[in-house]
Amino acid sequence: MSDNSTGTAPLGAASKAAAAGLAKNQPPAPEKPADTRTHAQIVSDVARNRKDLQETLDAIETKLNVPKQAKLAARRVAAHVETLREENPAVLVAAAAGIVAVLGAAVWFGFRATRR
Predict the structure, then answer these.
(1) What pLDDT, on a 0 to 100 scale, did the predictor assign at position 114?
(2) Rounded to whole angstroms, how far apart are CA atoms 58 and 37?
(3) Minimal CA–CA distance to 77: which of 87, 85, 89?
(4) 38-49 pLDDT, tens per residue?
(5) Among the four 20, 34, 44, 95, which has the fewest Cβ within 10 Å?
(6) Which stretches does the entry tag as region Disordered (predicted)?
(7) Which residue has better confidence, 74 or 112?
(8) Contacts from 89-93 at CB under 8 Å and sequence distance 24+?
(9) Between the CA atoms of 21, 22, 25 and 27, what dihedral angle is there, to the nearest 10 degrees?
(10) d(Cα 5, Cα 23) in Å, to the nearest integer?
């Protein structure tokens, strides 16, 4: 090994020959096909791609917007409750009674736990 003050050893003749051999053995770069579209087709493709990109960005924004998702979920629940009220009000009354019973039991047991 040679002690070189710069920290890098110069390329020897064997290294240069190996590098040249690697460059010669590389496959040729593939030829790029000629673009045969007309200007109007290119403009149309760009407009379509912009529209697709806008739709994608809108979908991402909708998914990542938590307040908007919460509003949409609330609307879905309200629509479901309204449908349930119109189609089968007995189920809605039973569900409301169940919720009241669970909340009442939670308050009762919480009150009893603090009194002991």
Answers:
(1) 85
(2) 30
(3) 85
(4) 999 999 999 999
(5) 34
(6) 1-37
(7) 74
(8) none
(9) -150
(10) 30
Average pLDDT, the chain: 84
In the numeric block, which tokens belong to residue 79? 């629509």
Amino acid at 96: A
CB 69 within 8 A of CB 63: yes
> Which residue in this structure is represented by tokens 């007995």?
90
Q: Are 75 and 83 in contact (CB under 8 A)?
A: no
State both tokens at 81. 């409750």
Residue type, 19: A
The secondary structure of the chain, three-state, reads CCCCCCCCCCCCHHHHHHHHHHHHCCCCCCCCCCCCCCHHHHHHHHHHHHHHHHHHHHHHHHHHCHHHHHHHHHHHHHHHHHHHHHHCHHHHHHHHHHHHHHHHHHHHHHHHHHHC
Q: Could you tell me if 92 and 85 are in contact, meaning their C-beta atoms sit under 8 angstroms apart?
A: yes
